[in-house]
Design brief:
Arc Repressor Mutant, subunit A, single chain, two-stranded antiparallel ribbon, mainly alpha
């Protein structure tokens, strides 16, 4: 196990079941932004959209890079898209 003994079992992103150990592994590989980790691990892309894990991930990035937390970018917020029928938009008229 890792240095704290719990990193491979501590789930950080519950939606995608990503552990602290996995996050640290990718940080060690040089992927040290929230957006990069999102692309690789899908952290912050589940139903909670990062509300449960983003702060923890940002703190880990801050710690690993040795920079203050306010210098860690929170990443790009992209709300999930949901298709709707064009007729619904047409029915809205000038509202």
């Amino acid at each position: 196990m890792g240095s704290d003994g719990y990193e491979n079992v501590t789930v950080i992103c519950r939606c995608e079941e990503i552990t602290l150990g996995e996050i640290r592994e990718w940080l060690d590989r040089g992927y040290d932004t929230v957006d990069e980790l999102k692309r690789i691990l899908r952290v912050g892309m589940g139903p909670c959209q990062g509300r449960g894990c983003q702060d923890i991930i940002m703190r880990e990035i801050s710690r690993r890079r040795g920079i203050p937390i306010d210098q860690v970018e929170s990443g790009t917020a992209r709300p999930p898209g949901k298709p709707i029928k064009t007729g619904l938009l047409a029915d809205m008229g000038d509202e």
